[in-house]
Automatic annotation (TrEMBL):
Hydrolase that can remove 'Lys-48'-linked conjugated ubiquitin from proteins. It comes from Magallana gigas. Belongs to the MINDY deubiquitinase family. FAM188 subfamily. Keywords: Hydrolase, Membrane, Protease, Thiol protease, Transmembrane, Transmembrane helix, Ubl conjugation pathway. This is Ubiquitin carboxyl-terminal hydrolase MINDY.
Length: 223
């Protein structure tokens, strides 16, 4: 049954009453959520959002595409992580390819290990979301970083030294992981050798806070 809601309050009430359908093992919560965001955007509009109308939300080996990730994060199934759009001219003057990126700041952001490897460049719309919460794309799955201080994304002075909390649902994480990020530690040098064992999460963090010192506060770093 497809449910329609005319107000945010009605939607929130429905989710509170039925949250177990989305969270319990074996209930298909991820698929239910995906159906919800697709029908909220409408199928034709999802296709229009993509670089190609034949684009897919599910890629090879069952992995979600960037189109699906952006649909969840921004409400639009754009195919890229940079800001706005890029026009590529074929050189003939008549054939222009448009690559569609994120069109504005989202509530939740994104940090990607692919940027560290120079496979992409995440734009400021995703790096500086409206709330200090970032989905982290690393090591073939997604996890989350967040701060409990909203001023982190509105006051540059708050970015000098701050805490981020990390959660990995796929790993069924039980313990709290709190990272202290120091962007003004003059004595810290970013590891430069490929032989240095640097946690991928630190690489992701430094795509936004370049050169930052990451203190795991006694937790064993996730290599």
């Amino acid at each position: 049954m497809l449910n329609h809601f005319k107000s945010y309050e009605d939607l929130l009430g429905f989710l509170k009453q039925n949250v177990h359908h989305f969270m319990m093992d074996g209930t298909g919560g991820v698929i239910l959520t995906l159906y919800s965001v697709i029908f909220t955007r409408y199928i034709d509009q999802v296709r229009e959002d993509m670089d190609e109308p034949t684009g897919k939300l599910m890629g090879a080996h069952g992995y979600c595409t960037q189109d699906m990730v952006n649909l969840y994060l921004t409400g639009k199934a754009n195919s890229n992580v940079f800001n706005d759009k890029i026009e590529l001219d074929s050189g003939t003057g008549s054939d222009v390819t448009i690559l569609k990126g994120v069109t504005g700041r989202s509530n939740i952001g994104l940090l990607s290990l692919f940027e560290h490897h120079k496979s992409c460049q995440v734009g400021t719309y995703l790096k500086t979301p409206k709330y200090p919460v970032w989905v982290v794309c690393s090591e073939s799955h997604f996890s989350v970083l967040f701060s409990i201080k909203k001023e982190l994304i509105s006051d540059w002075k708050a970015e000098r030294r701050f805490d981020l909390y990390y959660y990995d649902g796929l790993a069924r994480q039980q313990e709290e992981i709190k990272l202290t990020i120091d962007t003004v530690d003059m004595g810290f040098k970013t590891p430069s050798s490929e032989e240095d064992l640097v946690p991928p999460l630190e690489h992701c963090i430094r795509t936004k806070w370049s050169g930052a010192n990451v203190d795991w506060n006694g937790t064993e770093p996730l290599l």
